[in-house]
Protein: Presqualene diphosphate synthase
Amino acid sequence: MTGIQNAMQGATPAARSAASGSSFHAAMRVLPASQRQAMFEIYAFCRAVDDIADGDAPRAERLAGLQAWRREIAACYAGAPSSSLADLAAQIERFQLRRDDFLAVIDGMEMDAMEDIRAPDDATLDLYCDRVASAVGRLAVRVFGLDDDCGLPLAHHLGRALQLTNILRDIDEDAARGRVYLPGPALAAAGVTLDTPAQIVAHPAIGAACAAVAREAQAHYDRARAIMDRCPPGRARSPRIMADVYHGILTRLQARGWSAPRTKVRVPRARLLWIVLRHAMA
Structure:
């Protein structure tokens, strides 16, 4: 059995999403059943390739696993999907999902698999955010039924806002993997010496670099909300939930501060439920 078959068999995509306890799962529950199923299939794909990129296998094996996913996606678009991806292929056809967006996600995972990203320049970080987050958004907005004039800029800004928030939330976990996604220019401006990941994230001046990333994330949230205000309300419920949940994480991170040791930040379950209900009834 291939690694892809292993990744996609067993629990349904919806069950895997629910088991993760993710805000993604909560945001998708407000969708009609057909759209919800499509998003769970996209989620399963993203989880599978992310698990490869973050796995413990040698880099060559991880890259080979991601290359196998390229072949599987190609087969979906050729009308000959493997049995484990038949449901994903059906959603690709139903919502006219773009092959380039799936491949962009794989490209982003390859950036992690090829080498540990450490203090990237601004252009590299933006490319990474586009591939691992905004590309997923470009798939999602087609499922939501948003046209390109609204959907593509929303995917651009909300994807970057969410990914930058993830980077700020996961500083210590990423450093334990040998990665530092905080941008090199912001670290240099703060006077943080580019040493080992553990030393970078423990540096007493790291707060200035984190604050710069937080400001960039906030600017993307502001742009995303302005775009959502122009979108048909019923088609923007899920992205509004994601924006509110992750902006709540950003706000809590800023209130907590950036100095080590850093406590884990989460949105309380009651707050998550309130956000979902508020947008579901809008």
In short: The chain has a mean pLDDT of 91. Residues 157 and 220 are 5 Å apart (CA to CA). The chain is about 75% helix and 0% strand. The two ends are 46 Å apart (CA to CA).
